[in-house]
Design a protein that fits this description.
Among the domains are: 279 residues, no CATH class; 187 residues, tricorn interacting facor f3 domain (Immunoglobulin-like, Sandwich); 126 residues, Immunoglobulin-like (Sandwich); 185 residues, Galactose-binding domain-like (Jelly Rolls, Sandwich). Helix 4 runs parallel beside helix 8, helix 14 packs across helix 15 and helix 21 crosses helix 22. 33% of the residues lie in helices and 25% in strands. The chain is globular. With 1144 residues, it is an alpha+beta fold. It is built from 25 helices and 48 strands.
Length: 1144
């Protein structure tokens, strides 16, 4: 009892002293004030109530303690490391040395005192959060999660920080050095260590996924406990080390022995937990590597095609038993003497039979190698049955994926969520095709070509016996018999999904299509929030489906669409072989519990906010109309065109939402395959599942942030190799998406250019409908195209797949004439398009016009950055909706054509999409500066004229040095410090080209691209922040002949006026829509000539676009040089090209 009394006495004294500390008081007051405001602002009825937080009640304590824990981890360092100095300052050492108190009692008392003080603050914060939680009528209360998170997050962090601070102070006995070390460790955790080796070094739980589901709770509880116990035990062991190091004669031999004993025990406990966490990490990594190596061993084998599968499954808690009866056909050109199937490595095969006879088989990790009774000839069918049981190994699902919560985060608001691909427990089961929970004749990943995929359309029948009280859900018509649920899909499927849980279901039947919603009990909140539209819901849903069918130019292929609610931790990973995510399955969409990760799912809050806004604006709208708007907006953002933006490594990446229904209209309906070009299905998928939505897109935002468009990023990627070579380099998922989309757009536009845009689209829509649920060899498709249109595309595929060469387009002599045709004013656009490169290419043309029905549906966003920063984005040629394309032009090697196009409405801007080409930017915007009136009614032909040769773009007597040429000197590059090099942190100028940024301006010369800059293929310039003239760039060129030269600089900006010759006033140019203060003002050039150096100031803002004459100077050979400094009164300085023209 004396021991406990002394510990309590020291703890009470320590807590009292700390409570009087101004440092702790300020932190406590600040934390209480800040988190109270945050709780009211986020979780209360008067706050924002973001649905990601509101939908999962455990997010309330998690958010509060996540924020608080970061701050108190730092504060604990200061208070704990101060203990020796403070004791000496207030003379408490004398008390310690004279009283009968052991080191054990003293240090343990101080530890408990500090821990109790901070836990008290945590509890007060949690009480405030709980009160706010109770005031919300949209949230339930998860009371136990308040206790769980307090123990999981705060206790280990505080204890580890205390122990480490005590130990270091006892060893070093220098407060400043101790502070520096401890703060360095904290900073390393927050910025560098938290995501490495499965968060094993994350003592603050800064990045540790701790999200708790309402359905299954913590899905990774064992991992969480081991990770947090590492620092709990380590903190305690440091405390006992401090007891042994404390410089005072020990008063008790017993306590000394106990200190050694507990120090060793807790160190051992920490070591065991560390081993468990690291073993989990290594096991996951090794299993993924094993899957890849096994796939590499079997990827060249021939597989059968699965036509029918009957699966009988019994759920047994954390495992299941199953019998799969499989029918298949040999669609290969060779006979098969072995059958190969893939089955999740967590499942064990017990028997393989065929016709009542046992077949011999061998397991190589997840591959089942079966010896048939006889060879299977091409075109022949066979069948067999496989008995197996076990559990699911989730590492198998995405073997090429490397877990990194920094590079591939899954967050709700700011809280990390653990990613799961399957669930198998006594209360809940979710098995998706990607887990290979039934035998699959194919591989989930092909190491030599990650974009390759094998797809079979299979007639499934599933018989499931769920645990008592649980409901099974799968695709197809469900019948119950003797405790079994039998599912019979009405169409062939590419894969089968099974869920078992406490589900409730609602059904809406419209014509021949049935919509089914499977949700967890109590999660149907939307019925109440959208009660006004219950009677009109059938009309809304059928209208949305019609819009989808119009967008994808095909009918929805299934008779049902099921919406299945799954735990929030379910998260499919992107695959290189397809852009389809596992959240979308054939005739089924897997949605997170209470729609927690979807945009706009907080219907009630959105309704209240919009209602108040409309009342303030004196707008009248009924509750029903408003709910219709909210519902339609949610459906569009979730299932049709929603996009998610992520900022990764300084690059803005746009990813479609995981619930888009596009795969239902192609990937789960059609399949094109080729042994020679295995990527062909992914290429078709990327093009056909693209949805063009007018006025939507990410390029405007990305350009505003300085990032390039997708087409420019892709063409830069293709500099590294051919399509085939890039795929074998194992690029990132984003890179795969870009290059496959580019090649798909190029291939389909080539087909349209030869067959005709409308004719090809009409033919292809019918073709995919006639071949629904079939695998189509690309050679057969080539033959069908030849029979219909009289040309073959297959010979082009070799260059398309294997060649690195790119065409390059030069657009010159653009003229627009106002003409009269049949007593109607029309507009004739003519220009010359050249391709000087030795390979053929294709580009699309569209227009931004001033009239209605222009046929141009490009996304266009003009932001006037000074006068040269306007940009626009076009989706022309993307997807089956090509109403925005006015012409597709194909240019052969070293070929030029004069193009003539007749328009019904006055053109404001011509847009060229160069697709796969050397052009940067690939989307070239050419404003219409002048429209000439023509009285000649002849010569109004619309077409293409082949020119005899490629026109020259330079003239005798002139020398041009662009910023892309060897004569351009960029000066000093960006310096990268040694700390960045050591930690492998890249500098912010990682991209070769960017867009001009209005904010966060670079202090180095950065290359930027824009249609208004000068260049051959790459229309670029360099810019930097305006300053005092300490940085400069130079243009230099040798001069062969002495004499006087006119020297020009290129002013790259949008033209400010449009004139119509002989006509009235023109409408304002597009740039006038958003006029902002110019970023560019005075540009200071230094011209070097025979008589010295002359400084020239160019008023960029008021100078006309194009070549600007800076004066005439006498130059002798080797003396031509022009320099531009960063001196300017404007925010930015920009330099493009310099031209020397010999005076006559």
């Amino acid at each position: 009892m004396t021991l406990l009394h002394n510990i309590r006495t020291v703890a009470r004294y320590e807590a009292t002293i700390l409570r009087r500390s101004w440092f702790f008081r300020l932190f406590s007051i600040g934390a209480l004030f800040f988190l109270t405001i945050m709780n009211i602002g986020l979780f209360s009825p008067v706050g924002d109530e973001p649905w990601g937080f509101i939908s999962i009640p455990s997010s309330v304590p998690l958010f509060n303690l996540y924020i608080l824990n970061i701050g108190q981890a730092v504060v604990v360092i200061f208070l704990a490391a101060d203990f020796l100095k403070r004791d000496k300052k207030v003379d408490t050492n004398e008390v310690l040395y004279t009283r009968s108190m052991s080191n054990f009692e003293y240090i343990m008392g101080k530890t408990w005192g500090i821990l109790r003080l901070f836990l008290g603050l945590d509890v007060i914060i949690l009480i405030i959060a709980l009160i706010v939680n109770l005031t919300s009528n949209k949230m339930t209360v998860d009371l136990l999660s308040y206790l769980y998170y307090l123990l999981i997050i705060c206790v280990p962090t505080i204890l580890f920080s205390l122990g480490l601070a005590f130990m270091l102070m006892s060893l070093i006995r220098n407060q400043a050095i101790t502070f520096l070390i401890l703060l360095g460790i904290a900073a390393l955790d927050i910025f560098w260590l938290y995501f490495r080796f499965s968060s094993i070094f994350d003592y603050m739980a800064f990045g540790l996924p701790l999200y708790k589901s309402n359905v299954i709770g913590f899905d990774n509880l064992l991992f969480i406990l081991n990770q947090r116990l590492i620092y709990f035990f380590l903190g305690l062991s440091f405390v006992f080390v401090t007891i042994l190091l404390f410089r005072r004669l020990p008063q008790s031999r017993t306590y000394t022995v106990l200190s050694y004993f507990f120090m060793v025990i807790f160190l051992a406990g920490s070591a065991v937990c560390t081993f468990n966490v690291y073993s989990s990490y290594r096991k996951d990594t090794d299993e993924r590597s094993l899957v890849i190596e096994t796939n590499r061993q079997f990827e060249d084998r021939n597989f059968v095609s699965l036509t029918d599968a009957e699966i009988d499954l019994v759920h047994n808690g954390n495992s299941f038993e199953a019998l799969a009866a499989l029918k298949f056909i040999n669609e290969n050109n060779d006979s098969l003497d072995k059958y190969y199937f893939s089955l999740n490595p967590g499942l064990k095969v017990t028997a393989v039979t065929s016709g009542g006879k046992n077949l011999s088989f061998r397991n190589t990790n997840h591959i089942i190698e079966i010896d048939p009774l006889k060879k299977l000839l091409p075109g022949e069918e066979d069948s067999l049955s496989v008995s197996y049981s076990g559990t699911i190994n989730e590492s198998f699902c995405y073997p090429d994926y490397v877990e990194n919560i920094k590079e591939h985060p899954y967050q709700i608001q700011m809280l990390n969520v653990h990613k799961r691909q399957a669930f198998l427990s006594d209360k809940y089961v979710l098995l998706i095709p990607e887990t290979h929970w039934y035998p699959v004749p194919g591989l989930n990943y092909y190491p030599s070509n990650p974009a390759r995929i094998k797809v079979d359309f299979t007639n499934f029948t599933l018989k499931v016996k769920p645990a008592e009280g649980l409901t099974a859900v799968s695709q197809g018509i469900m019948n119950s018999s003797e405790g079994y649920s039998v599912f019979t899909p009405e169409s062939p499927l590419t894969g089968l999904t099974l869920a078992i849980g406490d589900y409730r279901s609602d059904t809406l039947k419209l014509d021949t299509l049935k919509y089914i919603s499977h949700y967890f009990q109590g999660n149907d909140y939307y019925k109440k929030d959208l009660a006004e539209i219950r009677d009109t819901l059938p009309l809304l849903v059928s209208g949305i489906m019609r819009d989808l069918e119009v967008n994808f130019s095909t009918k929805y292929p299934f008779r049902t669409l099921s919406l299945l609610e799954v735990p929030v931790q379910f998260y499919s990973l992107p695959r290189m072989s397809t852009q389809t995510r596992a959240e979308v399955q054939p005739s089924m969409v897997l949605l997170p519990e209470k729609l927690s990760t979807t945009q706009g799912a907080g219907f009630k809050r959105r309704f209240t906010r919009n209602k108040k806004r409309m009342e303030r604006n004196n707008q009248v709208i009924t509750d029903k109309e408003l709910q219709v708007r909210i519902f339609n907006d949610f459906i569009r953002n979730t299932f049709i065109s929603g996009e998610a933006f992520t900022f990764r490594n300084g690059i803005i990446i746009n990813e479609p939402t995981r619930y888009r229904l596009g795969p239902s209209f192609y990937f789960y309906k059609n399949n094109f395959f080729s042994s020679e070009f295995p990527v062909i299905n992914a290429v078709f998928e990327s093009h056909l599942q693209k949805v063009n939505v007018p006025g939507e897109g990410d390029y405007g935002f990305r350009s505003y942030m300085g990032s390039l468009s997708d087409i420019d990023r892709t063409n830069l990627i293709f500099r590294a190799g051919s399509f085939r070579e890039l795929l074998t380099m194992h690029p990132s998922i984003d890179t795969i998406r870009l290059i496959i989309t580019m090649k798909g757009d190029y291939l389909f536009n080539m087909l349209r250019s030869k067959a005709g845009i409308t004719d090809f689209n009409d033919y292809f829509r019918k073709y995919v409908e006639d071949n629904k649920f079939r695998r189509i060899d690309i050679k057969k498709f080539n033959g069908d195209i030849n029979a219909e249109f009289g040309f073959e595309f297959y010979p082009y595929l070799d260059n398309w797949y294997n060649s690195k060469d790119q065409p390059g387009f030069i657009i010159t002599d653009v003229q627009v004439n106002e003409i009269v045709v049949d007593d109607r004013v029309r507009y004739k656009v003519t220009f010359v398009a050249s391709n000087p490169e030795p390979v053929a290419g294709i580009f699309n043309i569209s227009f931004r016009t001033g009239g209605q029905g222009s046929g141009s549906r490009q996304t266009s966003l003009n932001v006037q950055q000074g006068v040269s920063g306007a940009y626009s984005s076009s989706e022309q040629g993307r997807g089956m909706d090509v109403t925005d394309i006015s012409r597709i032009v194909m240019l052969g090697p070293e070929e030029a054509k004069k193009i003539s196009i007749i328009l019904d409405y006055e053109p404001r801007e011509m847009l060229i999409n160069s697709l796969y080409a050397k052009n940067i930017p690939g989307e070239i915007n050419i404003p219409v500066d002048e429209i000439k009136k023509s009285k000649n009614r002849n010569g109004v032909t619309d077409g293409e004229q082949l020119l005899e040769s490629v026109p020259k773009i330079s003239f005798p007597g002139e020398i041009i040095v662009d910023n892309e040429d060897p004569g351009f000197d960029l000066g000093q590059m960006l310096f990268q410090g040694p700390l960045k090099k050591m930690l492998k942190i890249e500098s912010s100028s990682g991209e070769i080209y960017q867009q001009v940024r209005r904010y966060n301006r670079p202090n180095y010369w950065q290359s930027v691209v824009n249609s208004y800059y000068y260049g051959r293929y790459i229309l670029s310039s360099v810019y930097t922040a305006g300053s005092s003239g300490d940085r400069s760039v130079k243009w230099m060129t040798p001069i062969d002949e002495a004499g006087y030269y006119d020297i020009y600089c290129y002013v790259g900006k949008m033209s400010e006026r449009v004139t119509i010759s002989g006509g009235g006033n023109a409408p304002p140019p597009p740039q006038e829509e958003f006029r902002q203060e110019s970023l560019y003002k005075d540009m200071h050039y230094k011209i070097y000539h025979d008589e010295g150096v002359e400084e020239i100031t160019v008023d960029f803002e008021n100078t006309d676009a194009g070549w600007h004459n800076m004066g005439r100077y006498y130059l002798t050979p080797d003396s031509a040089k022009v320099e531009l400094t960063n001196q300017s009164a404007g925010r930015l300085v920009i330099g493009d090209a310099i031209k020397w023209v010999r005076a006559k």
